């Protein structure tokens, strides 16, 4: 699953919490600073993939007439083009590989900023970060369903897409994360 910019702060917080709870690290400047560094790495990755997607869209647009004439499947073409030019952007197409790479980059960033001290193999910490990423993504659908269920219980109808909906959704989403120990 793709990571969206709206989820980056939540994932970053989860990473810092999970590292802290692991018992393997000492945070030299606290959870928030670790989360900030993780957020920088995650945000850069999301923006890089977004730039790749935009370039693929441009290529598709340049060839739209041929695509229409041949009745080609645009989604399949999108994926094929993305796969072909991903190395130019430094984007790994396999989410497993990408999350592993992001985990290494986060660990490197927080180590270089001297935000953690540890005396266990780096791979152990990288795995904690990777598990934080993958478990957040796995839990995300469940969390969103719980939030939507709460919103539907309100007497006043709240319409998706409105400012009221977005504000309430974000508030309930954060509450659900806290309830699950992810924030």
Count of distinct structural domains: 1
Strand content: under 5%
Structural class assignment: mainly alpha
**Largest pleated sheet:** 2 strands, antiparallel
The spatial strand order of the largest sheet comes to 1-2
In percent, how helical is the residue content?
Answer: over 70%
Order of helices and strands: HEHHHHEHH
Radius of gyration: 20 Å
Quote the average pLDDT: 90
| Morphology | flat
Amino-to-carboxy terminus distance: 21 Å
**Alpha plus pi helix count:** 7
- By DSSP, the count of extended strands is 2
Low-pLDDT residue intervals, each spanning 5 or more residues: none
Describe the 3D structure:
The chain has 183 residues and is mainly α. It has one domain (8-179). It contains 7 helices and 2 strands; from the N terminus they run αβααααβαα. The chain has helices at residues 8-22, 31-62, 64-69, 74-89, 95-112, 122-152, 163-179; strands at 25-27, 116-118. α2 (31-62) crosses α4, α2 packs across α5 (95-112) and α6 (122-152) packs across α7 (163-179). The longest helix is centred in the first third of the chain and has 32 residues, at 31-62. The mean pLDDT is 90.
